Amino acid sequence: MTRYTVIWERAARDELAQLWLDSSFRNLIAASADKIDSRLAVDADSTGEVVHEGLRRLTIEPLTVLFSVYPQDCRVVVHAVHLNG
């Protein structure tokens, strides 16, 4: 099992913050983001589904993230996040 450093691009961090601010269920959004970080930190190269080469998608309700895995650097970059539904 490889450990990865999870990095959220500025746009993804800003979007997550806005989703949290606009939400009436902030605890659920925060918990989902924490679970996404935890999952990507230990299992990024095999979690979620392939969108196309170099880009994967992971959904942990109520959030979905798009991310790339860089195994040579042991890092994951989250490019985007959105609220499902």
Helix proportion of residues, in percent?
A: 25-40%
Largest sheet: 5 strands, mixed
How much β-strand is present in the residues? 35-45%
> Can you tell me the number of structural domains?
1
Mean pLDDT: 96
Distance between the termini: 33 Å
The spatial strand order of the largest sheet comes to: 1-5-4-3-2
Quaternary state of this entry equals single chain
From the spread of the alpha carbons, the general shape counts as elongated
Question: What is the count of DSSP helices, taking H or I runs of 4+ residues?
Answer: 2
Protein described:
Helix 1 (10-22) runs antiparallel to helix 2 (26-43). The chain has helices at 10-22, 26-43, and strands spanning 5-8, 49-52, 55-60, 63-70, 75-83. The mean pLDDT is 96. It has a 5-stranded mixed sheet with strand order 1-5-4-3-2. With 85 residues, it is of the alpha+beta class. The chain is 36% helix and 36% strand. It is elongated, with a radius of gyration of 12 Å.
Please give a quick description of this structure:
With 85 residues, the chain is α+β, with helices and mostly antiparallel strands. The chain has one domain (5-83): YaeB-like fold, CATH 3.30.2310.20.
Task: Describe this protein with a few key phrases.
85 residues; 5-stranded mixed beta sheet; YaeB-like fold; 36% helix; 36% strand; alpha+beta
Question: What's the topology here?
Answer:
Elements: E1 5-8, H1 10-22, H2 26-43, E2 49-52, E3 55-60, E4 63-70, E5 75-83
Parallel strand pairs: 1-5
Antiparallel strand pairs: 2-3, 3-4, 4-5
Helix pairs in contact: 1-2
